[in-house]
Every structure is written in C-alpha cells, then in structure tokens.
Amino acid sequence: QKKQMSNSSSITQFLLLAFADTRELQLLHFWLFLGIYLAALLGKGLIITSVACDHCLHTPMYFFLLSLSVLDLGSISTTVPKAMANSLWDTRDISYAGCTAQLFFSAFLITAEFSLLTLMSYDCYVTICQPLHYRTLRGSRACVHMAAAAWGSGFLYTLVHTANTLSLP
Where do the G-protein coupled receptors family 1 profile domain residues begin and end (predicted)? Predict the structure, then answer.
C-alpha cells in the first residue's frame, strides 16, 4: 500500500515592497503619511462631532454623511497605520492573519461606502425630483434601515469573497 505525500506548504507572512530603499525616504514617507492621516482623522472627527451634536443637522442627508465619515475613518485606518509602521521601523512583512484582516476590512468598508454613496444619490434624487413626498419617503427609521442595509450588504459581500479567496490553495 502506497502512502501519498502531499506537496504543500503553509504561508505565515507576506513580504511587502518598500516605499523606498533609503532610510531618509522611508522616514519622509512616515511623516508625510502621518500628517495626511492626522488631517483626515481631524476632518472626519469634526464632521462626526458636528452632525452628532447639532440637532439642526439631524436630517437624512447629514445622517448619511455621518455614516460615510465613519466608513472613511475605518477605510484609512485599515491600511495606513501599517504602512506608516513599516516605514518607521524599516520592516517589510505582514502576517497572514494581518493580511487577511486588512483584506476583509478594506473590502468591507469600501463596499459599504459604495452602497452608502448610492443611497445618498437616491436621497438627492428624492429631494430634487419629489420634494413634496420627501418626508413620507424618508423618515428617520427608513434612513437607519437603509444605512444598516448598506453596512450589512457590504459585510456579507466581503465575507463571501474573503472566504472564497482564503479557500484557494
């Protein structure tokens, strides 16, 4: 009886391409991205705070803008900190689990963002083309359900595609 040996290996980490090979350019990359990242965090944080605190901004358009800002914060926080850390510490690797997490969260947040942008365009359509029916078509409960559907569809879509990607040998 012959015993068949499988020819397979497991991957524990991936090597990334560096932004630059010289240390000075890596540090410039770090400081540049840190500035851009902090500016984005500040801008999105101000939008979230403004919409959450001002009752005049509790309309469907601003609710969707709040949700979009949260998705944007998640999108930039998925990959940029790891890129900055790699530049700062002169490393080029990412673990398999880290790569999987980045893939999942990036795809989830971007897909949910596209769905939310579609809902926002529909909101503008209703506002412009059917202004008298706006309140009946757009209650606060409907907006929450639509935003939840955008987030949920993004999650399910990403779950299926990430699982299919990771099932490949």
Answer: 43-169
